[in-house]
Amino acid sequence: MALYVQKFGGTSVGSVERIKAVAEKVKRFRDNGHQVVVVVSAMSGETNRLVDLASQINDEPTPRELDMLVSTGEQVTISLLAMALQKLGVPATSYTGAQVGIQTDSAYTKARIQRIETDDIQSDLDDGQVVVVAGFQGVDEEGNITTLGRGGSDTTGVALAAALKADECQIYTDVDGVYTTDPRVCSKARRLETITVEEMLELASLGSKVLQIRAVEFAGKYNVPLRVLSSFEDGGNGTLIIADTDDEEDSMEEPLISGIAFTANEAKLTLLNTPDVPGVASRILGPIADANIEIDMIVQNVAPAGDYTDFTFTVGKGDYKQTMKILKEQVIPDLGGGELRGDDNIAKVSLVGVGMRSHAGIASKMFRVLADENINIRMVSTSEIKISVVIDEKHMELGVRALHKAFGLDKDDIEQE
Ligand code: ADP
Ligand code: ASP
Ligand code: MG
């Protein structure tokens, strides 16, 4: 007998038929003698619908009320799934995050899980129940409902699996595993049998929304066996997220690039002609950090004349307008000059792979491939296992496909080998 935490995403519970199919799947595991905790998302589109409703009432809703609102999506699916299971003769009970004791901090809309009480879940499981838990939500110390950030049901699943010491956390979704890149953009993308935590963390943080980054962090930190699987097909192995390997021999055999992530969810801002003196970077970025806006890439030009420089950085698209405002109203007056440029039609495309650690020339090949497609590179950033470039958004898909082919990731290439 094993204990599984099974998380089903929005599309997987997107209709009455889909919810019934999930109940059948859960029943099969239970019939085989396993214990199951199920975590569900809201029905697909529901969280967006709720956010949109809020914006029709108030364009700056307080985060507390927003969380109160968007957490309701998951309350619908837990009860419907419990009913579907009961209808099949499977004893099941549904719980909200608060009811099941998922304690978080008070950072509304991006709360972090601090503690999970497992006693009640454990005793339900021991009584033969399937426990159905609302994903994406928790409760802070004062009893306020919080949410974990978009895609946060993945994190609920992994955190519960860690707390319950489950044998495996299974993330069921609308694709049958983690691919070399988003299969919706590149039809030649290939499913990976395994991927390391380190690579999955990079892919998730660079835009692959198949797993929320915090879910991967939890899995790494608490050694939770984590697998991504299709909720639509039975029988596949999906993709197992495995511990990082330090073994030199293993890493020599690793492909240079494991995956390509991309996102059009950032915007670029440039301050031209800023004084090139110590402290400028912090005077530019300080007020932005004070507003809780996260900065991603940063590039500062070497000023030919030595007196003035250009300073460019990226922020999330949702923070673009506010960042512009801070630069205009606070930073430029403080610096006593500078001309502001902004562009929110950009995309970031990133190559990820632990194999690139020991190989030079990946960046130059990446730049050549993009140049051959006439794609202009606007910014570059690198770390040990990734290279990211910022390009125009209109070239994003073309760039991803060209890089996927050039780095030997296309399905046909692999099959021929
Ligand atoms: P869910 O609603 O089940 O949480 P998501 O939409 O959050 O599902 O995540 C699944 C989607 O992630 C897929 O439909 C796919 O388009 C996208 N995706 C992006 N990058 C990848 C990748 N490398 N491998 C698989 N899917 C990916
Ligand atoms: N329903 C939430 C969202 O759409 C959480 C999730 O699906 O993981 O972001
Ligand atoms: Mg998701």
From TrEMBL:
Pathway: Amino-acid biosynthesis; L-methionine biosynthesis via de novo pathway; L-homoserine from L-aspartate: step 1/3; Amino-acid biosynthesis; L-lysine biosynthesis via DAP pathway; (S)-tetrahydrodipicolinate from L-aspartate: step 1/4; Amino-acid biosynthesis; L-threonine biosynthesis; L-threonine from L-aspartate: step 1/5. It is an enzyme of class 2 (transferase). Keywords: Amino-acid biosynthesis, ATP-binding, Kinase, Lysine biosynthesis, Nucleotide-binding, Transferase. GO terms for biological process: homoserine biosynthetic process; lysine biosynthetic process via diaminopimelate; threonine biosynthetic process. Substrate binds at T47, E74. This is Aspartokinase. InterPro entries: AceGlu_kinase-like_sf, ACT-like_dom_sf, ACT_Aspartokinase, ACT_dom, AKii-LysC-BS, Asp/Glu/Uridylate_kinase, Asp_kin_monofn, Asp_kinase. Belongs to the aspartokinase family. Its EC number is 2.7.2.4. ATP binds at K7, F8, G9, G10, T173, D174, Y179, R184, K209, V210. Residues 269-354 form the ACT domain. Pfam families: AA_kinase, ACT, ACT_9. The keyword Transferase applies. It catalyses: L-aspartate + ATP = 4-phospho-L-aspartate + ADP. GO terms for molecular function: aspartate kinase activity; ATP binding. One of its GO terms (cellular component) is cytosol.
